[in-house]
């Protein structure tokens, strides 16, 4: 028996919603922008064996015990035993690593979500989506240093997700503009989430927090009331994270200038960076933007650029073999 699960890349914060807004992404080309995990039965040997493949597998730790799948398996097996009073079966887990680490596109969340959902699917889904989401958030938080659902929730559930974390509701989808193209570019360098957080102020001025709340509330309102121009005008961060993180990303200011001069709706940093995004409702403009980013922003062969739409599906079982 085997099962394969795909978890899409995601963009957290989306500028306007620091730590409380995120969206899953899918390239319009049909390419995979996310990780896949295969879980298959192993009759003999250790409880867990791990293999890695994919374009960014060489960036993963050589020691299997330092692989994210090791933590996922033992965490899930413990939860499974507590709920089912049964030992989890022996498995071989294969991670197809399609996202670079430290890219700002939810790389660790992708691996965690795909692995945990693969394990859940392998034993016929004993945990529901809310239980799984909480487990994914907790485990991803152990890796990144604190629990945040702005990558995990959209990666798992799809769409654009607003983090709530009240009344037993972790997140809920909000409407998005289906004609918007999200051009995302990873320059090929890495920025750790911890480093990107450490550069932020410990405290903010009252007027800055008021601006943040006003912009986020306005963006959510504009999304529900179908006002794309208003939503685009509010899709920005002048006070919370981007003014500080911009200095960590070579060429970011040039990206912002190009986006403004080309008539794009909005631009910003994806998650903690260094990936950037530019939004436009015109496919031809999206393709021109992609070409410009490939020429002026990407720094090495590890970098890439994709024209994306919001991924509505989120994580899904895709088959029985990679």
Automatic annotation (TrEMBL):
GHMP kinase C-terminal domain location: 233-291
Domain of life: Bacteria
Main location: cytoplasm
UniProt GO molecular function: kinase activity
Catalytic activity, EC: 2.7.1.39
Keyword set, alphabetical order: Amino-acid biosynthesis, ATP-binding, Cytoplasm, Kinase, Nucleotide-binding, Threonine biosynthesis, Transferase
Pathway: Amino-acid biosynthesis; L-threonine biosynthesis; L-threonine from L-aspartate: step 4/5
Reactions it catalyzes: L-homoserine + ATP = O-phospho-L-homoserine + ADP + H(+)
Metal-binding is among the record's keywords: no
Any single Pfam family the record assigns to this protein: GHMP_kinases_C
Positions of ATP binding: 100-110
Subcellular location: Cytoplasm
Enzymatic class: transferase
SUPFAM superfamilies to which the protein is assigned, alphabetical: GHMP Kinase, C-terminal domain, Ribosomal protein S5 domain 2-like
Occurrences of domain GHMP kinase N-terminal (ranges): 68-159
Summary of the function given for this chain in its UniProt record: Catalyzes the ATP-dependent phosphorylation of L-homoserine to L-homoserine phosphate.
NCBIfam families xref list: PRK01212.1-4, thrB
Family: Belongs to the GHMP kinase family. Homoserine kinase subfamily.
Protein name: Homoserine kinase
Organism field: Agarivorans gilvus
Gene expressing this chain: thrB
């Amino acid at each position: 028996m085997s099962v394969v699960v795909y978890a899409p890349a995601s963009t957290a914060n989306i500028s306007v919603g620091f730590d409380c807004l995120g969206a899953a992404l899918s390239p319009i080309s049909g390419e995979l922008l996310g990780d896949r995990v295969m879980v298959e039965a192993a009759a003999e040997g250790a409880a867990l064996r791990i293999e890695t493949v994919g374009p960014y597998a060489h960036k993963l730790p050589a020691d299997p015990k330092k692989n994210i799948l090791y933590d996922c398996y033992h965490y899930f097996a413990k939860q499974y035993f507590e709920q089912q009073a049964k030992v989890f079966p022996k498995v071989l887990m294969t991670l197809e690593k399609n996202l670079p680490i430290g890219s700002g596109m939810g790389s660790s969340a992708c691996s965690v979500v795909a692995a945990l959902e693969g394990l859940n699917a392998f034993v016929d889904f004993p945990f529901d989506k809310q239980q799984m989401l909480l487990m994914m958030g907790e485990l991803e938080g152990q890796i990144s240093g604190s629990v945040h659902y702005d990558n995990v929730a959209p990666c798992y559930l799809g769409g654009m997700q607003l983090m709530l974390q009240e009344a037993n509701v972790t997140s809920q989808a909000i409407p998005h503009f289906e004609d918007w193209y999200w051009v995302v570019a990873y320059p090929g360098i890495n920025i750790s989430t911890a480093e990107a957080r450490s550069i932020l102020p410990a405290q903010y001025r009252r007027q800055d927090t008021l601006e943040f709340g006003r912009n986020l509330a306005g963006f959510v309102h504009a999304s529900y009331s179908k006002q794309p121009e208003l939503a685009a005008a509010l899709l920005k961060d002048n006070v919370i994270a981007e003014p500080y993180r911009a200095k960590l990303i070579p060429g970011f200011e040039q990206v912002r200038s190009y986006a403004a001069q080309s008539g794009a709706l909005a631009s910003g940093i994806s998650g903690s960076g260094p990936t950037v995004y530019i939004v436009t409702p015109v496919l031809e403009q999206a393709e021109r933007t992609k070409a410009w980013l490939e020429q002026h922003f990407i720094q090495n062969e590890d970098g890439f650029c994709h024209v994306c739409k919001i991924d509505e599906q989120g994580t899904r079982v895709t088959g029985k073999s990679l």
